Amino acid sequence: MRNDHKTDAIAGASVLAGARLVCRYRNSYEYEGKSPGYTSTYRMMAQDSGDSYVADVFGHGVAQPTAFRLDGESSVVFSIHPRRRILNSTFDVVEEETQTRIGALKQHNGFGRDFWTATGPAGCDLFSIASPESAVRDFVRQNLGGFRKVYVYHRGGELLGFIRQELRPLAKSERGFRKIIGRMLSRSDWALYAEEQEIQLVDRRMLLSAGLMLLSLTTMLDKSN
């Protein structure tokens, strides 16, 4: 897949006027009863008509498959499988019931810059995820302790959506001083937005899987969590 990084002109993710909030990724640490190698638990809380999922991550998604369960249920719906246990960069997304491959995710590294590509079951290009910043700016931020807070989903230079770090919404009942304190102490989630029309053309499971792997591997190295 061609990795078109012509996204430097993007001043902010708000340029996608038609994008809507798809889900929020909320990371937590629930060690009780987990197997060795447990890293964290991600809750993908749907903000539209889609399903919400929960996934326990082991070894940042590299050590073993990452299973997606519907929130509140125990059965696995689909999962991400690393192709290799050592020096792996490609992951298959598999439907659990039929063991059918939905698609694949590949992590690319180069010049201190990570980006991801997603392909369908027949190898067709679906989308890429990359930082909208220049490689030079990435280098400076990484070496001065900074971090990225937004990544864009794109296909051949066409923007499909974005995932960015946002403060968690406050309760509507919080007002005045309590609201100010609450905002100061609020933690953040990663929020996935997608274009209304474009999201219909991509398997939602691939969007969610790509976002989880981005957060488990790339943003961890960027000091974004």
List keywords for this structure.
225 residues, alpha+beta, twelve-stranded antiparallel beta barrel, 3 helices, globular, disordered N terminus
Secondary structure: helix percent:
10-25%
Broad shape: globular
Mean pLDDT: 80
The strand order across the widest sheet is: 1-2-3-4-5-6-7-8-9-10-11-12
Task: Report the count of strand segments.
Answer: 12
Question: Tally the helices: what do you get?
Answer: 3
- Secondary structure category: alpha+beta
Strand fraction:
35-45%
Helix/strand order? EEEEEEEEEHEEHEH
Can you summarize the main beta sheet?
12 strands, antiparallel, barrel
Spans of at least 5 consecutive residues with low confidence: 1-15
What does this structure look like?
With 225 residues, the protein is an alpha+beta fold. It has one domain (13-221). The chain is built from three helices and twelve strands; from the N terminus they run E-E-E-E-E-E-E-E-E-H-E-E-H-E-H. A twelve-stranded antiparallel barrel has the order 1-2-3-4-5-6-7-8-9-10-11-12. The chain is globular, with a radius of gyration of 17 Å.
What is the secondary structure topology, with strand pairs?
Elements: E1 19-28, E2 38-46, E3 53-58, E4 66-70, E5 76-82, E6 90-95, E7 100-110, E8 113-119, E9 125-130, H1 135-143, E10 150-155, E11 158-167, H2 176-185, E12 188-195, H3 204-221
Antiparallel strand pairs: 1-2, 1-12, 2-3, 3-4, 4-5, 5-6, 6-7, 7-8, 8-9, 9-10, 10-11, 11-12
Condensed summary:
The protein is α+β, with helices and mostly antiparallel strands and 225 residues long. Helix content is 16%, strand content 40%. A 12-stranded antiparallel barrel has the order 1-2-3-4-5-6-7-8-9-10-11-12.
